[in-house]
Amino acid sequence: MFTAGAESLLHQAREIQDEELQKFCSRVAKLLQKDEPGPDAVDALQRLFLIVSATKYKRRLEKTCVDLLQTTLCSPKCPEQLQLLCAAILRERSPSDDLSLSCDRVQSSQQLSLVASVLLAQGDRKEEVRSVGQRAFRVLESRQPEGPSLRHLLPVVSKVTRLAPHSLHEDQTSLLSKRLVDWLRYASIQQGVPHASGGFFSTPRARQPGPVTEVDGAVATDFFTVLSTGQHFTEDQWLNVQAFSMLRAWLLASSPQGPSAPDSDDRSELEGSTLSVLSATSTASHLLPPQERLREKAFEYCQRLAEQSTRRALRKGDADLQKACLVEAVLVLDVLCRQDPSFLYRTLSCLKALHTRLCGDPARARALLPIAQFFLRHGEAAAVDSEAILQHLFTRIPCELFHSPTLAFEFVRFCGDSLPLFGRNLDILKQSFPNLFKLLAWNSPPLTSEFVELLPWLVDPGTAVEMLHALLDLPCLTAALDLQLRLSPAASERPLWDASLRNPSCLEASRDPQFQALLQHLLRAKASGTVEKLAPLHQLLQPMASCARVVQCAEAVPTLLQAFFSAVTQFADGVLANQLALLLLERCDSLYQVPQYEARVHRVLSSQFLALCALHPSLVVELAKELLEFVGSVSSVRSRGAMLASVAWAIGEYLSVSWDRRCTVEQINRFFEALEALLFELTQSRPSAALPECPPQVIAVLVTTLTKLASRSQDLIPRVSLFLSKMRTLAQSPAPSSMHREEGAAAVRARAAELLTLLKMPSVAQFAFTPSAELSKPRYHRDANTALPLALRTVSRLVEKEMGLLPG
């Protein structure tokens, strides 16, 4: 969020009209045309940058002003601050057709980095990436490795490498690999000399700089790395840091066969052999080709970082840097082992020891992710079982560190990125979905899209029912995790919980033994294969339902349910479809009461119930007893009106011999009587606290279903006709009732009239309400001489407003 002053400036910048902007550009052009632009020019360029960057669309500037911005940027005598501002303004206008910049004559690497940033923002419309890369390498070739200005050049080379890795020649690749070796391995181990102030007390006898130190304050006895510390740094030490930052990207881009393949086929055949181990130690490093020598030095560098990570940092900033560098070092080792399997056996012992040490250090749990990915990728080749590593990862981290948003995001991304690597270990991922859902429950807004992609890999026939219960209870899980943090004994180490609820009344009640078993089930780490009814826990945690984090989680559940059912319907058989349909009926009135949560979930459940019925129509007959119980209660209208409408529609659509031969007339009659009693009670009673108002959509679906059932058991037609006649009269009556809202009465009256008209011709009604499966074939929709078009025309004429056959 911006401050009030910043918001005011942004608003003013966005409101500037084109005419006023052009006048301001003219002023900027005059200031830039001076021999020595002063503070006024700096102030004007800062204002112009604010104007062009404050809006998401491109602002039009005068051509003279744009040309002067480019001239100022390329001028070797221009102050650095002006060049930075000119480059920033030109980048905001990219891509642009009126740009005439070129880096061919730029000599200074600092100036080249600014010009390159503008050209690379163009998007390679005129092969800018290639030209920038070639110019950068020409400057690199013309200078010594210890040149003071190369610090500005490496970011340009790194970006060119990422954008167009194949635009570099072989000799250029070798040159940069040699330079990276020098910067990584042979940087000075003495601290840099501070810049002389030139004041009265400056003296040529200043104290000589001492050696660099480790993060724990000890004097460094090995080569310099990014984790070495000091008061001041030399140029080659800064280059060492930059070289490590671009090392992994360069190794991937400069590999002859791409980032995922070894360098040669014969080396891949040596994987797992004794010869590959011996070859790593028998070849002198200085005799290796540049790329292989870089790998060797990169391996030494990563080992050195692993050793430095064991030291206890004196400052928090150094401790955070240790964690980040350790993650990057493991990722670099992974690349090295992919490109050259001979590194694998030297890496295994290091990473095994590192994994053992990190398992007991929750503060460095983030580094366990790349280690697990390393063993997933290389475990089979190295004859190492990664199952134990994965079991620890999926059991401990989500359970203990779900409240870390950064770790939660990286953990879920690790799961998604490693899906092709899991292989036979995929069951560990699937069985760990209750723990993964803890990350989702606590961090639902940023992780929802990631879980939508991950859910199809997590669900299978064995966990589908349990996972659906877990998704419906996700807001309750959020409340339980919040409660768990509040009950945590280590108060000094607890993360902040939801502050929107100060002191929930359920805090002490949760210690009751009768709730402990339910809480343990909800907070389980793995799929248990069992389902517990959590209604008592819902009541216990009800005071926390209004917490901001719980409400946010509830908003994400409908999207997750859609993704779940999209995956389940791909493999669900009849048995699983019946189980899921029964679960929907049971859970629609057993949800955690979060504001607006029930209505949103009911919309999804009702649509998915229909999808399951369409997938397996026989479930209506197989679940006849449960469906009769569901429609037998008027109280269901308030809490599950959408679900009631879907169930009624499914009964009318699929309770037929044409869908299931087991369907009998007795079943049709039982459903008819249950629905008739429900509809009569809804339409004849006045709304009250006990009997809520019934939506007109439900009334329309119920009368339609009754008519469909009567068309299949024609003894029921007189009863339906009488009821429909009363419905028309009731809908026209001004007496208040539960269905007499003005906007719904007309629709109910029209539906009753149409149905009553169709029932006057039972054979037509049966054809319209229970069509044969043959009608789904294309020929019934293309051939005008078949029965379908004629029947559709007949039905259309029957339901005209006159409710009678029109003259020919």
Automatic annotation (TrEMBL):
Residues 321-438 form the AP-5 complex subunit zeta-1 ARM repeats domain. InterPro entries: AP5Z1, AP5Z1_ARM, ARM-like, TPR_AP5Z1_C, TPR_AP5Z1_N. Residues 1-280 form the AP-5 complex subunit zeta-1 N-terminal TPR domain. One of its GO terms (biological process) is late endosome to Golgi transport. GO terms for cellular component: AP-5 adaptor complex; lysosome; nuclear speck. Residues 450-798 form the AP-5 complex subunit zeta-1 C-terminal TPR domain. PANTHER family: AP-5 COMPLEX SUBUNIT ZETA-1. This is Adaptor related protein complex 5 subunit zeta 1. It comes from Neovison vison (American mink).
